[in-house]
Amino acid sequence: MARSMFRISLALFFATLLALRADAQQLIQGTTPTGALYAFAVPDDWNGDLIVYGHGIVDPAAPIALPSSQNGFAVLKEAMLARGFAVAYSSYSENGYALKDAFHRLNELPELFEARVNRQPGRVYLMGHSLGAVAVQMLAEQFPVRYAGALAMCGFVSGGV
Asked: How far apart are CA 152 and CA 71, in angstroms?
């Protein structure tokens, strides 16, 4: 019994090591001239495509910070990386109902990505939650050639007060 438990534990250990290797990635972070923080996560087995992620509204009193777990972003990011996509994301320059800022910060990410990673993505997809969903919807409508597709989740895309 103890020997079979040891073998199972050993198998799980090596499976975990293999899973960690599959998630190996490069993480590049920086700050834009407007004060927005940005990050690019690029998996070792990058498929050549980029997903630009827009986060939802953040409390105006909160400090400027990169998205982490809000709206399940950490899980989404890991799922996209595991499928070979690079992921670009930003804090925006301000918090609160900052739709105009979100639009501009997300739109600058593909060029920043190309400059910092030194590779041009094959296709750029947009993904966003809440306020980020509205910003990615606007980007997809205004730049239909630049962006290959958009996934707007839980966005108030028909307008707001």
From this structure: 12
pTM: 0.83
pLDDT of 24: 64
Task: Report the 3 state secondary structure along the chain.
Answer: CHHHHHHHHHHHHHHHHHHHHHCCEEEEEEECCCCCEEEEEEECCCCCCEEEEECCCCCCCCCCCCCCCHHHHHHHHHHHHHCCCEEEEECCCCCCCCHHHHHHHHHHHHHHHHHHHCCCCCCEEEEEECHHHHHHHHHHHHCCCCCCEEEEECCCCCCCC
Distance, in Å, from the CA atom of 32 to the CA atom of 55, rounded to the nearest integer, reads 17
